[in-house]
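I am writing to request your help with a piece of structural work I have in hand. The matter concerns a single protein, recorded as an amino acid sequence and a row of backbone structure tokens. Could you please explain, in whatever detail you think fit, how the structure tokens follow from the sequence? Thank you for your consideration; the sequence and its tokens are set out here:
>
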Amino acid sequence: MALPEELIETALRAADAAARELLMRADRPSSGVSTKSTDTDLVSDADRAAEQAIDEVLDTERPHDGRVAEEGGALTGSSGLWWVIDPLDGTTNYLWGIPHWAVSVAVCDRDGPVAGVVMHPSSRETFVALRGGGAWLGTRRLQISTPPELGRALVGTGFNYSAAERHRQAEVLVRALPQLRDVRRFGAAALDLAWVAAGRLDAFIERGVQQWDWMAGRLLVTESGGEVVLLDATDERPAGIAVAHPELVGAILALFEGGDPPGN
């Protein structure tokens, strides 16, 4: 079994390989753009090239590990470890020239994420977390913000690709927004979670995100002292995630989800 420090170094090299590919393509005309789940759910040649860059690192350094990636599907491994990868979180931002997108790389065992990296190439910021070893931005150890009163909380969220779910999310915002300091919707869940860990947001909640969107960010939040609640899918709504300080997360869930907070 690899040492956690070795895994984080591999995660950094993989994320950096994707970031370099994406930065090289950022000022070029978009190519190979197509849709996935809906007409608003986009994928491009940049996504595919970034994932290939990650694959090349993992094929060389971790050939026996499993893999789950947004564009490439699943690969079964034999080591007991698997990588959860989003080569470009925030594709729409990237294609429209909005510099808020990220590369997210996490490695997991049966107990959850072991190491995670969320890289924001546009700002040259790299958020790193190691299970039991803390969450870091460069040399600064991250600590989640002291929880404000709900009315002073700055909350991140996102909107689903499904029109029906967007309608429900809009209805929730009508109820929630007057009871908060404000809401931010940046369009890259991995970065939103990293920003909660860094104290730039007080909470984040969204339905419709996938494990590659939040796996690395989940570890960043827990290692910075935050609480993560995974939201189960229902007959009407997709699964999701909510994160905040342990003393704030219940109020966020009650406001956005209604009723009793769901279990972890």
